[in-house]
Write a structure and sequence with these properties.
Shape: elongated
Low-confidence stretches: none
Radius of gyration: 20 Å
Order of helices and strands: EHEHEHEHEHH
Strand order of the largest sheet: 2-1-3-4-5
Length: about 160
Amino acid sequence: MTGPRIVHVVDDEAVVRRTLVGLLHECGYDARPYASGTAFLDVAARLPFGCILLDLRMPDRSGLEVQAELARRGIGLPIVFLSGHGDLATAVMAMKRGAVDFLEKPVREEALLAVLDAVFRRREAADVDAERARLVRRRIDAMTPREREVIRLVAD
């Protein structure tokens, strides 16, 4: 993957948002703050790939509601939930719906950075695999009919 590692920080608490954005900038991430789930959803369809740090409890829409709406819209950005009020049942539900992780506030810097690093490494590996598949497809498309026949016979 080329380009910046973008992290969308969605939290209604200004202090938490500023703290997370500052930490992430210091660690080389392109952190983008959103004060509510609605503010994030308003622009979500136009955003480049990035990981979402999503607060569980927000006044306008809960993190689970935002997650469900993103799924409904077909927006598959990875989500890491943050919560100071999470419980096991909620964490399990979030993970079953596709969340990458569920971290408790106050979040430990090492834990957060490890999760984000894993998200972006996974994406980079998928990008490499996709590029390899495109290369193979181009090579196959460039073959003559006879070369394709020989490849099929060799594969069989």
